[in-house]
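Example for tutorial group B:
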């Protein structure tokens, strides 16, 4: 399996938060002693992850079928909840962003005459859709036409 190419995580100049199990944990549990970073301050003062890194991580890893909000959060060492909070100001959720970008790439490939030799299933798999039937339903829901009909009209 190819190695995922994530963009670098950008941190502020502040010291990195302690990890579970390091000394100084809350109430002797070994847990972190830092307070959670509010979503509105997560990029600048918390040093978590900025918008460009999140977007780059999605764009660079669209072909990875394991790309999910949980994978993005784990890569940036933040919780899934914080990741979703960071996306609250966006027009769509993290999952919807991944799905939309994958659909855009598959639609482009289906319209490309140089890729006529590839099956619709191969193109769907190339952009991270695990099951061709799921891809077909998702494509039809998004564009109002099955991928096979779209390919014939493109």
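The residue assignment follows.
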């Amino acid at each position: 399996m190819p190695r995922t190419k994530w963009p670098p995580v950008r941190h502020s100049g502040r010291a990195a938060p302690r990890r579970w199990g390091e000394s100084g944990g809350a109430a002797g549990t070994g847990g972190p002693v830092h307070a959670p970073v509010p979503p509105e301050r997560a990029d600048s003062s918390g040093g978590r992850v900025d918008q460009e890194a999140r977007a780059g991580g999605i764009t660079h890893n669209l072909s990875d079928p394991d790309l999910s909000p949980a994978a993005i959060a784990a890569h940036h060492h933040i919780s899934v909840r914080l990741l979703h909070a960071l996306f609250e100001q966006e027009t769509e959720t993290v999952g919807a962003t991944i799905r939309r970008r994958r659909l855009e790439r598959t639609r482009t490939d289906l319209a490309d005459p140089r890729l006529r030799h590839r099956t619709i299933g191969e193109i769907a798999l190339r952009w991270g859709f695990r099951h061709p039937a799921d891809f077909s339903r998702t494509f039809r829901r998004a564009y109002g036409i099955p991928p096979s009909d779209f390919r014939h009209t493109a």
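The two ends are 32 Å apart (CA to CA). Compare this with the pattern of hydrophobic and polar residues in the output above.
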